[in-house]
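Colleagues,

For the teaching module next term, I've prepared a clean inverse folding example: a structure given as tokens, and then the sequence designed for it. I'd like students to try predicting residues themselves before seeing the answer, so please don't circulate the second half yet.
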């Protein structure tokens, strides 16, 4: 029974780290001053640890722990693809938040100010 508890704790730790990583990416994508750069270092660490576990350890685990690990790994892969796609959109200038801001700036620049309106003949 002690072996099972060890895997459960390890899986809980990975799950918490993945949730924290998701939170950091969400803050970055929202433009929060708390997270000015994407947390790619933490992403690489968590991804490396998950891949190492999948290759080395999981084969000897019981079915319940393997199933839970598979769920966590699949969730990481899904979020990893989403983050990569969103980062590419930001780099290309196609991200929804950035498009909205640029549209608002263009709209503001296109409307004449009060001094410009008063200067017209």
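(Answer key — instructors only)
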């Amino acid at each position: 029974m002690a072996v099972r508890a060890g895997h459960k704790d390890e899986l809980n730790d990975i799950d918490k780290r993945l949730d924290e990583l998701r939170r950091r990416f969400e803050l970055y994508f929202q433009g929060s001053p708390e997270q000015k750069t994407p947390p790619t270092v933490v992403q690489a660490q968590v991804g490396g640890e998950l891949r190492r576990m999948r290759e080395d350890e999981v084969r000897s685990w019981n079915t319940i722990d393997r199933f839970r690990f598979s769920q966590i790994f699949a969730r990481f892969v899904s979020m990893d693809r989403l983050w990569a796609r969103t980062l590419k959109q930001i780099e290309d200038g196609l991200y929804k938040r950035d498009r909205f801001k640029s549209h608002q700036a263009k709209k503001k620049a296109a409307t004449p100010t009060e001094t410009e309106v008063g200067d017209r003949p």
